[in-house]
Amino acid sequence: MKGFLLRVVTVLPLLLWTGCSRPTSSSVDRTGGPSREYEVRGVVLELNPARSNLLVRHEEIPGYMRAMTMPFAVRDTNLLTGLSVGDTIRFRLRVTDDDGWITSLEKVAPATTNRLPLTGPFRVVRDVDPLQPGDLLPPYPLTNQWGQAISTTNFQGRVLVLSFLYTRCPFPTFCPRTMQLLVQAQRRLRSLADPSLRWHFLVVSFDPEFDTPEVLRAYGQTHGADTNHCTLATGALIEVTALAEQFGLTFWREDGGWAHNLRTAVVDPEGRIRRIFPGNEWTAEELVQAVLEAHDPLRPAADPAAPGPPTR
Description:
Elements: E1 6-10, E2 27-28, E3 34-48, E4 53-58, E5 68-74, E6 88-95, E7 100-107, E8 122-126, E9 141-144, E10 149-151, E11 159-165, H1 175-191, E12 199-205, H2 213-222, E13 230-234, H3 237-246, E14 251-254, E15 257-260, E16 263-267, E17 273-278, H4 284-295
Parallel strand pairs: 5-7, 11-12, 12-13
Antiparallel strand pairs: 1-8, 2-3, 3-4, 3-6, 4-5, 6-7, 9-10, 9-13, 11-16, 14-15, 16-17
Helix pairs in contact: 1-4
C-alpha cells in the first residue's frame, strides 16, 4: 500500500438545473404503508433496464434530500423507453419508510444557465491500492460511538463485517437499507447460539463532521444494532477516505451532501479479506453465510434462513 503518497482531490460541484421539486400529499402504497411523493428534475447518467433502475444527477428535493447523484428504481421499465444518457427528465418519486421508486417520468427541455461551476473544496487523500480477497486488512485509526480510539485491526480473532454509510443519508434504499440488512444479519447470527462462532460488525461513517460519537450511538440504537457485536465509528477524513477507496467505495460532496456508492466486506479471524459485496442488493442470509464460511472454510453450507431461537 502506498501509504505515504499524497494526492489532492478537487471536488467540482456540477451545474444545477432550476425546476420544480415539491412534496405532494401523502398517500398509501400498495403494501398498505404510508408513502410520500415528490416531483424531481435531473439528468440521466446511466440506464439499467435489466436491473430496473437508472442513475440520475438530480436537483435538491426541498424538505427531503440535497442534490446528488444516485440510482432510482423503476418498477415499470416501459418508463425507460426512448430515454438516452444526457436527457433531462422530470419524474415523480414515491418514498416509503423502507423503499423508493419512480412512478412516472417524462423528458423535458434542459434548463439554461450562465452559472459556472465553483471550485472546491479540496481534500488531501492517501494514494492507496485496491484490496482483493486474500489481502490483509490494513490498520486504520478510528473513533467509536463511545469516543474511544480503535483500529480496524482490533477485531482479529473474530469474523469482521465492515460496511460504510453516513447517518444523514435520507433515501431508504441506500444507507438505511444497508443498516437494516446489517441488523438483520446480526440477529440471525445471534440466533445461531454457537459459542464457537465469534463475529463483530464495524460500520464506518464517511461524514465525520456530522457523525460524532453521540450521533453514531443514537443511530445504532434507533436501528436496533447489537451493542455487544456492532461498533459504529468514524475518523479523520483522510483515513476514512483511504479505507473506503481500498474497498472500491467512493464518496464526494454534492450541494452540501454526500454522493456515494456502497460496499460491505467480510474479513476472516486472521484479518484476511474473504468477500466484498458491492451495493446492497445482497440479502442478510447471504451475508450470514459469508460470515460462517469466513469463520470455518470447511464448514458445510448451511441454510442461514432456517428458523432459530427467537431473539429480542
